[in-house]
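S2.1 Query sequence (Protein kinase domain-containing protein)
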Amino acid sequence: MAERNVLLKNVTHPFLVGLHYSFQTTEKLYFVLDFVNGGELFFHLQKERTFPEHRAKFYAAEIASALGYLHSIKIVYRDLKPENILLDSLGHVVLTDFGLCKEGIATSDTTATFCGTPEYLAPEVIRKQPYDNTVDWWCLGAVLYEMLYGLPPFYCRDVAEMYENILHKPLHLRPGVSLTAWSILEELLEKERQNRLGSKEDFLEIQRHPFFETLSWNDLLQKKISPPFNPNVFGPDDIRNFDATFTEEMVPCSICISSDYNIVNASVLEADDAFIGFSYAPPSEDLFH
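Output structure tokens follow.
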């Protein structure tokens, strides 16, 4: 239900995936979302290893804009990683997968659930301390670092050792990027959350950082800035930017084939009480535009 609620609030932001419908059968819940076929950021990073700084900056800005919007409506994202960052057909960022989002967290509020993806966890999450929306700015720093250097900042195959690195190892910044890139990485990947970039004025601090000095945030939000990379999508059914591992998978189930021939008409009342109110249709006809 939390993911559905977050999706319903995304309609006003250009860098968040949109929900068209949600419905349920007696066995499953379904979301009908935007089809975004420019590929995962993870997919493109695997192919190219690193991005030029201007390209990484563009993606970081659009991601930050999406996170800033979520924070403004009291939502902490908590699972930023390249697999959850898609590119649309033109190359703009689309943030997806809101399953770990936490609602109702204002700037001064904290939560304590241990969740996220190991490579991108903030130190306070690993310590199982109360944390706030600055965990998202840590994750932004980790993703930006990975775009510039090819791996998350404290990466190790041994998860326990990686946690130790995140908690105690100094940030290592190699040559090859600008001083302002070094600066924002150091400030986003600050181990003490109260000193982290974004801890005082949230998204405003990100916008004001010299790394983004030449960027017009208004133009960015209106998609007036041309993306630095074109996924070369040739139509709405083009899947060239998806890994074949996924596109060759069998569909695990179908709402059209079932031993229960009435399953597609299952009433909300027939489902678990926990999901009453899950089904959603827009107030006007949705043509998926």
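Confidence is low (pLDDT under 50) at residues 257-272. Residues 26 and 252 are 16 Å apart (CA to CA).
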